[in-house]
Design a protein that fits this description.
There is one protein chain. 12% of the residues lie in helices and 40% in strands. The protein is mainly β and 181 residues long. The strands form two sheets. The chain has a seven-stranded antiparallel beta sheet, covered by helices on one side. The protein has a four-stranded antiparallel beta sheet with strand order 6-7-8-9, with no helix packed on it.
């Protein structure tokens, strides 16, 4: 548990900051969300990162927005490469996302990231794990800074299924992972 100096407000008047922080986190963790792998590239540099803070933000054009920590290697690659790919995983692949909690080791010869084979997206070249159920390939539309994260908006330029379209997709609650709050 963080100390009072590390707790992030605001806090309701009269509330104990530590108790309120625990309550707020529990409520935020209850919000249903998917768990995905975000592929990024700049030239020959590539990365896959686990992410769960995203949404479709427009239907015309097709835009998705993803929150990425400001200090993340992935954000550096997205901004420099002007693209990203979002991979939807099957529920049975829940253990895979743990490999991508930090920058992934890239083996360009084996075409793997953290030992996981990847495909280059047809339009942008961003990495898509070969085990992905489905993907969205995006060009960068804009980046907006908010607190600890940047909201990255991309236009969907290609999409497809690599697996069975009827399979259940991975959700945050399928793992013991918690993020945010």
């Amino acid at each position: 548990m963080p100390s009072n100096e590390e707790l992030i407000g605001p806090f309701p008047e009269g509330a104990d900051p530590k108790e309120y922080d625990r309550l707020r986190r529990r409520v935020l963790w209850k919000m249903p969300t998917g768990l995905y792998l975000l592929g990024s590239r700049d030239g020959e540099r590539r990365n896959l990162m686990a992410c769960n803070l995203l949404t479709q933000v427009s239907t015309d054009p097709k835009l998705i927005g993803i929150a990425v920590e400001k200090e993340a290697f992935t954000l550096e690659l997205i901004v420099a490469g002007r693209c990203f790919a979002l991979a939807l995983l099957a529920r049975e692949d829940r253990a895979l996302v743990r490999k991508f909690a930090k920058p992934a080791e890239h083996d360009a010869i084996a075409h793997t990231l953290e030992g996981v084979a990847y495909l280059d997206a047809k339009t942008t070249g961003a990495p898509i794990p070969a085990v992905a159920l489905a993907y969205l390939d995006c060009t960068l539309e804009r980046v907006v800074a908010f607190g600890s994260h940047c909201f990255v908006v991309g236009e969907v330029v290609d999409a497809g299924f690599l697996g069975d379209e009827d399979q259940e997709v991975l959700r945050m609650e399928d793992t013991r992972m918690s993020y945010g709050g």
